[in-house]
Amino acid sequence: MRYAVLFEKTDTGYSAYVPDLPGCIAAGATLEDTAQLMREAIEFHLDGMREDGEPIPEPTTIAEYVIVG
Prior knowledge:
Layout: E1 6-9, E2 14-17, E3 25-28, H1 31-51
Antiparallel strand pairs: 1-2, 2-3
């Protein structure tokens, strides 16, 4: 599956979350670290959902940049 991940710059690095997987978050010092931690967090999150017998949500979030001005 392919989930959208949103990254945000913070005072100490970056944070990230997956809108289609509430509670699935990661934070790291660099964008690259955060992306790797996010991949691991998604796998861990989905494994936990499977173990608990929860349905795995289909990705529905669409992200796009919009140019203005």
